[in-house]
Amino acid sequence: MLLSPMLSSANEEPEHLVGVATIFDDAGWHTQVEYFNELIGPALNMKFMYSDKLNNSMELTDFMTRAISMGCDGIINFVTQNDCVAAGASLAQEKSVWYVTQNSMINEDVAELEHNLGHVGASVSGMESAYYELLTELITQEGKKGFFIYTGSAAGGNQGTGAASHFYSTKGMLKAIAKAYDLAYEKPVEDLINEMASGYIETGRRLRNATARIKSGFFL
After folding, report:
1. What is the pLDDT of residues 87-136, one digit of tens each?
2. What's 35-89 look like in SS3?
3. How many helices (H) and strands (E) are present in the chain, helices listed first?
4. What residues does 50 pair with on adjacent strands?
5. Residue (of 35, 36, 91) closest to 63 by Cα position
6. Is the dihedral of CA 35, 38, 39, 45 positive or negative?
7. How far apart are the first and last CA of the chain?
């Protein structure tokens, strides 16, 4: 685990207090909190201090400042926009506390900071090709007539404002659809994914006497 530099046996050192900054506030997050408290904490000699749902870098650094003042010697960051990752890593370096982020894309601006332990997440390396192959296989299965792609936060994932893993998985799937059905999208795939407005994507091909169109808005 990337937090290993600040971990030790419960018999050797006092319990560590770790701040956890989050963008979540749903049932899944509360399950994760239980996991941290009941399993991770006792196993790794830790207790956790959790933020409320955070929305930007200012809210992140405000929480980190409070957490550090209350004795936290590490921060786990789930606020993953590029500017938030950078602001958090810089503050952790300034305050000499350990810092790790849940994110798939490395922020190169702060990657070399001593107290920035890195990122935990699905690597974007190979993500596009893996989902291209996955959807290609599904398309070739008998009886498969259509697909609903729901990727959560793909928009901006290649720019540090969304989820990189969502962006590149969506890119692979859209390319697989275009290849399988001989479609020509009206815009580059990257632009389609980053489009925030709902609407239809023209594909330049007629299927069953109707122009093939793909509904956007579920790529966000």
Report:
1. 999 999 999 999 999 888 788 899 999 999 988 887 788 899 999 999 99
2. HHHHHHHHHHCEEEEEEEECCCHHHHHHHHHHHHHCCCCEEEECCCCHHHHHHHH
3. 7, 7
4. 20
5. 91
6. positive
7. 31
Neighbour tally for 162: CB within 10 Å: 24
CB 21 within 8 A of CB 77: yes
**Could you give the C-alpha distances from 176 to 29, 164, 193, in angstroms and in order?**
33, 18, 14
Give the whole-angstrom CA distance, residue 128 versus residue 122: 12
State both tokens at 3: 């937090």
**3-state class (DSSP) for residue 127:** helix
Is residue 91 a contact partner of residue 64, using CB atoms and an 8 Å limit? yes
What sign does the dihedral 90-92-95-97 (CA atoms) show? Answer: negative
The pTM (predicted TM-score) of the whole model is 0.70
Chain-centroid distance, C-alpha 6:
24
Q: What distance in Å separates the CA atoms of residue 145 and residue 30, rounded to the nearest whole number?
A: 37
Residue ranges of alpha helices (H) inside 113-201 are 127-140, 164-181, 189-194
Four-CA torsion 195, 199, 201, 207, nearest 10 degrees: 160
